[in-house]
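Residues pack. One example:


***
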Amino acid sequence: MNGGGPKQLKKTWIWLVAMVGAGMLLVREVSDPALSLALAAALLTIAVLKARLVVLDFLGLRFGSRHLRIALLAWPIFFALAAAAKTLIAAFPSGG
Protein backbone atom coordinates (compact mmCIF):
# COMPACT_ATOMS: atom_id res chain seq x y z
CA MET A 1 0.00 0.00 0.00
CA ASN A 2 1.36 3.39 -0.93
CA GLY A 3 1.06 6.43 1.31
CA GLY A 4 -1.78 5.36 3.60
CA GLY A 5 -0.50 3.15 6.32
CA PRO A 6 -2.30 1.33 9.11
CA LYS A 7 -4.04 4.47 10.38
CA GLN A 8 -5.71 5.07 6.99
CA LEU A 9 -6.72 1.42 6.76
CA LYS A 10 -8.32 1.60 10.20
CA LYS A 11 -10.31 4.70 9.20
CA THR A 12 -11.38 3.02 5.98
CA TRP A 13 -12.40 -0.12 7.82
CA ILE A 14 -14.52 1.93 10.24
CA TRP A 15 -16.23 3.66 7.29
CA LEU A 16 -16.90 0.30 5.64
CA VAL A 17 -18.45 -1.11 8.82
CA ALA A 18 -20.57 2.04 9.20
CA MET A 19 -21.81 1.73 5.61
CA VAL A 20 -22.72 -1.93 6.12
CA GLY A 21 -24.64 -0.95 9.26
CA ALA A 22 -26.43 1.85 7.41
CA GLY A 23 -27.43 -0.56 4.65
CA MET A 24 -28.73 -3.06 7.17
CA LEU A 25 -30.79 -0.38 8.91
CA LEU A 26 -32.23 0.81 5.61
CA VAL A 27 -33.34 -2.68 4.64
CA ARG A 28 -34.77 -3.38 8.07
CA GLU A 29 -36.72 -0.14 8.50
CA VAL A 30 -38.28 0.23 5.06
CA SER A 31 -41.47 -1.76 4.68
CA ASP A 32 -43.40 0.53 2.33
CA PRO A 33 -43.20 -0.75 -1.27
CA ALA A 34 -43.42 2.83 -2.56
CA LEU A 35 -39.99 3.47 -1.05
CA SER A 36 -38.39 0.50 -2.80
CA LEU A 37 -36.88 2.64 -5.58
CA ALA A 38 -35.37 5.07 -3.09
CA LEU A 39 -34.11 2.15 -1.01
CA ALA A 40 -32.53 0.52 -4.05
CA ALA A 41 -30.84 3.79 -5.00
CA ALA A 42 -29.51 4.28 -1.48
CA LEU A 43 -28.20 0.72 -1.23
CA LEU A 44 -26.54 0.89 -4.65
CA THR A 45 -24.90 4.19 -3.73
CA ILE A 46 -23.57 2.69 -0.51
CA ALA A 47 -22.25 -0.32 -2.46
CA VAL A 48 -20.38 1.90 -4.93
CA LEU A 49 -18.91 3.97 -2.10
CA LYS A 50 -17.72 0.82 -0.36
CA ALA A 51 -16.14 -0.44 -3.57
CA ARG A 52 -14.38 2.91 -3.97
CA LEU A 53 -12.88 2.67 -0.49
CA VAL A 54 -11.70 -0.88 -1.11
CA VAL A 55 -10.10 0.06 -4.43
CA LEU A 56 -8.41 3.16 -3.09
CA ASP A 57 -7.20 1.93 0.28
CA PHE A 58 -7.17 -1.86 0.50
CA LEU A 59 -5.92 -2.36 -3.05
CA GLY A 60 -3.51 0.54 -2.55
CA LEU A 61 -4.53 2.51 -5.62
CA ARG A 62 -5.14 5.86 -3.96
CA PHE A 63 -1.73 6.95 -5.23
CA GLY A 64 -1.33 4.26 -7.89
CA SER A 65 -2.10 3.86 -11.56
CA ARG A 66 -4.85 6.24 -12.66
CA HIS A 67 -6.06 3.95 -15.46
CA LEU A 68 -6.32 0.90 -13.22
CA ARG A 69 -8.11 2.94 -10.55
CA ILE A 70 -10.66 4.22 -13.09
CA ALA A 71 -11.22 0.73 -14.51
CA LEU A 72 -11.72 -0.80 -11.06
CA LEU A 73 -14.14 1.95 -10.07
CA ALA A 74 -16.06 1.71 -13.36
CA TRP A 75 -16.76 -1.96 -12.71
CA PRO A 76 -19.06 -1.54 -9.64
CA ILE A 77 -20.60 1.59 -11.15
CA PHE A 78 -21.56 -0.39 -14.26
CA PHE A 79 -23.22 -3.12 -12.19
CA ALA A 80 -24.96 -0.58 -9.94
CA LEU A 81 -26.42 1.13 -13.01
CA ALA A 82 -27.49 -2.24 -14.42
CA ALA A 83 -29.18 -3.12 -11.13
CA ALA A 84 -30.86 0.30 -11.03
CA ALA A 85 -32.14 -0.19 -14.58
CA LYS A 86 -33.51 -3.62 -13.67
CA THR A 87 -35.23 -2.17 -10.61
CA LEU A 88 -36.80 0.60 -12.67
CA ILE A 89 -38.01 -1.85 -15.31
CA ALA A 90 -39.55 -4.06 -12.63
CA ALA A 91 -41.22 -1.06 -10.95
CA PHE A 92 -42.91 0.08 -14.14
CA PRO A 93 -44.08 -3.02 -16.02
CA SER A 94 -45.36 -2.55 -19.55
CA GLY A 95 -49.13 -2.68 -19.86
CA GLY A 96 -49.12 -4.90 -22.99
